[in-house]
């Protein structure tokens, strides 16, 4: 694709994605779907105004506890010093709130919290394009960004101010920069990877998965010095957090480390809950993009692991951290969000390279994806329709026609049916985002 065309299409995608995210930005997910939005904001504001980390926490390791009721009559258990997480993302959240006139905790409310989430959501679409374009070219980058912009779980989930929504764009950017460094040998890209490898664990310790992914990518290209350099930056970041924690309260800090390492139920069955219980925030949300994303990702990476090394190192690095620390936390759907960009890019590769070539896989994937969207969009408004249901099945069945009947005409029908289903799926996905509510 020509550079100007890519820029214009990307701007259109960013606009559409922005409009879908801005609609109901301050309403859904509802206030209280996660009070972490307030916790991150309080952390940053207290550091910026008092020099001491203060925030909401339920954990018994804290000794200095006060109870605070905000103007909306929500009661928070505030702890001082708050040492569960590193401070970097909290500082970003605090500064964002203060740009909207916030001076103390009483001023913090959803309209001052979520503008940063909106900006991060747009940034994430651009980062998906950058990552996919770096590894697969601009056409796949555009398709990936388009999918990411209308992926319902992503678009709705990006409205909340969670650390995961901060991590995603920087994670993808770091991997894209690592790829550019390997290709172009420009040390500026490597320096930027080092900076992100230091800053991300200072936002949340599990974000060590980002430098792990970059290091694995460098090692896979025999860049040992660069790989160990990334690991060193991550280690320096964790060390800085330890000094920060000990400076404010050694006993509390190490008590929290012990809690965090033994906090969640870890078992073989824990991982499978991400398939059994499709969470958005603290509510179940039956999004076919998520279910089909798992299938398509494994279809893509199993075809040629060397070609898809970017997806593999990113996905596996976060998966390892997820399994190590956080698999079965109830009501914390945002822990799953960092998987979703790799679903979007895998879908883009799957569509770009598979239309007309793998109808036997394309047919069931698009059939099930569409059925989930009809359930989310059509049924609540018009009720279930046998006619619509069967028309969709017939259209999707046409995709697989070349499998059973050979000839150019059957292949053309299959391709036309594929594009028709994709148009319908795109429209339904956008409406699923616009119609979402928790009533």
Word description of this protein:
- The protein has 439 residues and is mainly alpha-helical.
- The protein contains 19 helices and three strands.
- It has helices spanning 3-22, 36-49, 88-99, 110-136, 138-150, 152-157, 163-184, 187-199, 209-220, 224-261, 268-271, 273-276, 288-303, 309-325, 340-354, 359-382, 386-399, 401-404, 408-435; strands at residues 55-56, 65-69, 75-79.
- Strands 1-3-2 form a three-stranded antiparallel beta sheet.
- Helix 4 packs antiparallel against helix 5 (138-150), helix 8 runs parallel beside helix 10 and helix 13 (288-303) packs antiparallel against helix 16.
- It is globular.
- It starts with a helix and ends with a helix.
- The mean pLDDT is 95.
Mean pLDDT: 95
Report the total helices: 19
Q: Categorize the overall geometry.
A: globular
Structural class, judged by helices and strands? mainly alpha
Largest beta-sheet characterization: 3 strands, antiparallel
Strand order of the largest sheet: 1-3-2
- N/C terminus separation: 44 Å
Extract low-pLDDT stretches.
Answer: none
Strand residue content:
under 5%
* Secondary structure tally: strands: 3
Task: Tell me the radius of gyration.
Answer: 23 Å
Write a short abstract of this structure.
The protein is mainly α. The protein has helices at 3-22, 36-49, 88-99, 110-136, 138-150, 152-157, 163-184, 187-199, 209-220, 224-261, 268-271, 273-276, 288-303, 309-325, 340-354, 359-382, 386-399, 401-404, 408-435; strands at 55-56, 65-69, 75-79. The mean pLDDT is 95.
